[in-house]
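Per-residue structure
===
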Amino acid sequence: MRVLLVLACLLLVPSVSATVVQVSQSSAYVNEPVTLEVGCFPTYFVKGWELKIKYDDTFLRFSNVTIGSFFDPYPQFWINGTVDAANSSIINIYNLVIGRGNVSHSAQFCYVTFVPLKVGYSNVSLFDVGVCNESKYLPVTIINGSVDASTRENPIIPPPEPEPKPIPPVEPQPQPDSSEKVETPPIAEADYLVGTFLTIIVAVIFCLCLLTIVEKRRR
């Protein structure tokens, strides 16, 4: 009977997928501050959280941790952590809603600022992350971040996009000029003389025939 009761309770309790806690990635310049966001994407109501941050102190100098907007506008119990220099970490970062209230929307837990000491790439990772509601800790998935540092004289420039090849212009085909006159070959001089002579003969014969007719009518 107890076994059946436990199974029934398990079926009635909805499963909770993991809440994501993520550190952003950023480009930066050497000896200039860069701020990374530690964001939360919850899948259930959140009442409080805690985390620690690991970084490479030969590459980054820690500056500060500031509170995010995740629990706004509730009153909060906020602790911005302690530097553990021996382990290159910031530990004991906490935040908790005081009194009644919880949050289920995505926002930033906190912001952490570093100063890059040299050119290169370095990871910034989270550990001992805890996210809880009023009664228990929730499953969490962690996504770590990074800093990619360069100098202003040699900034990190993304590769340019390939330029589209220009389309060669289509040369217009020459159109015939309607104003140009088509030259006809000249008539040969001999053909011209023959035609004129025949015209004269025909005219003479016509005149003779006409005179013959007139003479016959007179008689």
The domain at 17-150 is CATH 2.60.40.680 (Immunoglobulin-like). Residues 23 and 38 are 5 Å apart (CA to CA). DSSP finds two helices and eleven strands in the chain. Confidence is low (pLDDT under 50) at residues 1-14.
